Amino acid sequence: GAEGSTLMSYFSKNQIQALKPKITFSTLRDLQCPVLQSNDLQGKAEESCSTEELFEWLGAVLNQVSLDNKSSSFLSTYCCPEPSTVVEKAFLCTITGFIIPEKIIQLLEQLCCYFGEPKLAHWLTLTVHGFADSPVSWRESEHGFHKGGENLYNFVIFRNLDYWLHMAVGAHDDCPP
What's an example GO cellular component term for this entry (predicted)? Predict the structure, then answer.
């Protein structure tokens, strides 16, 4: 009856809102960035940073942790790995919602436009983070929440279209082959 149709309209309206991704943009000015070489995953002293150093730095940037290593900071004394360079302007875009793999491929393709004139980026990165309490992970395993619920992968794409792929999951989860 009337009660059923009211419920249906409530759920259809709210589900549509829930599935629409939320997008936020911000510009980071004078950002200290690690120097990277696409063919050097381990990094070289005074030449480039390693993939692990970059991954840690990305975590700090995405969580808006200060990178200036102030001893007065109670939150973090983290500083950008060396060698580093200051980037005048970096763009950070966050999309929150349920995003299908095809859309992620489209995003990657659009991001690669930043390698062309006039932007000329040296490298860019795309992080895809699953919900911490997601019931599924890669392969056949359930996702083990346990402590942090880690469940993400990260692309670093270089101007020559070489790329690095980081994958992070909890200790009890399977990683893809």
Answer: ribonuclease MRP complex
Question: Is the backbone of residue 139 left (phi > 0), alpha (psi -120 to 50) or beta?
Answer: left
- The angle subtended at Cα 137 by Cα 134 and Cα 139, nearest 5°, is 155
pLDDT in tens, 65-80: 776 666 655 666 778 8
All structural domains of the chain with their residue ranges = 22-96, 97-176
Quote the strand ranges of the chain, DSSP E.
Answer: 22-34, 84-96, 123-129, 151-158, 163-169
Q: In what order do the strands lie in the sheet with 163-169?
A: 123-129, 151-158, 163-169
- Cite the DSSP H helix spans in 21-120: 51-62, 101-111
Q: Taking 70 as the threshold, does the pLDDT of residue 100 lie above it?
A: yes
3 has a pLDDT exceeding 90: no
